[in-house]
Amino acid sequence: MLLLGLAAANVGWLLVSAGALVSALYLNPDIASAxxxxxxxxxxxxxxxxxxxxxxxxxxxxxxxxxxxxxxxRELWEAAPFLVAxxxxxxxxxxxxxxxxxxxxxxxxxxxxxxxHGMRFVLLTPNAHGAAxxxxxxxGAALVFxxxxxxxxxxxxxxxxGLALSVITAIGVSDRLLVIDSLxxxxxxxxxxxxxxxxxxxxxxxxxxxxxAVLALLLGLLAETAMRADHVAQTRDFxxxxxxxxxxxxxxxxxxxxxSYLGGGDFFGAPISGGGLxxxxxxxxxxAAGAAVVRWCWRAAPNLLAPPRRLTSAALARExxxxxxxxxxxxxxxxxxxxxxxxxxxxxxxxxxLSSQSLPCFPRAHRQAAGLDSSW
Length: 376
What we know:
The protein is an all-alpha fold. Helix content is 68%, strand content 1%.
């Protein structure tokens, strides 16, 4: 009951202070640029060029343009991220319930409901990778669903569902975060579950997952090409470059700071005072929780790598849940640590880019030379 009370109190506070919270979030010029760009596009002259920032957030832009003609579109634009965040919470809690049990679902729901400023920046704004997180959660939920149903799903239904999911996923492919921390773990998990069971049903699921990912990538790249041809693009295509050896340790420091920030513990550089000590406690708890998760995954790995055997649908759903989120963590952290970060001086007029994979782990971009710097 105490956990439910904490979650309810936090959700209630969010609802009561929603207006002030939205105003505070949109004081950030990168976030405020999204509705501004969508509004101005309707009156843009021929030959206009639209610059979206350090990653092409086409999916939110399409939604904003699609609803721009509604009389209450401003309110809808501000409310839509809240609705998506609620869907994220519901899907993740459902996944935990079906894969692990009600206790795990309760703890998961409470943790996600008690959002910090760093997570609110990502979840409750249109162009800070919240859409990519939704796609990742949707893909994970789909895997848990089919792992529970197994052979009870006919091949035509499985293929039709895969086609629909590939179209939905393709809409967000322009955000490379979706590829590295969702599509790759999605395909990996599907084939891992087949390797664990060697069943015909799981092989079909893995094949559908692989084709789904390929089709989503192709459709997404076609849409991205069309947008670029229409002169709607990111500030600059920075490409992907592995980090230099002397930058690896600084990246670790940035990651530790960013991870603690997500838990409300941004104590690095804070004054030693009441607020600073509270941030220290929250940061240490967040880092300890992360270390506990890594330790648990390490201890569970030998069981997951055991020889193939027959699994019940409940056991398979549990392993699907664990492997999907564990590989998501591994790929996201690896991309964060191994991707080079450029200084602001390398790109005059813009902030230094973070890889799209690392931005959800590092939302205070403007304070660490990694802003979105959106403009029109």
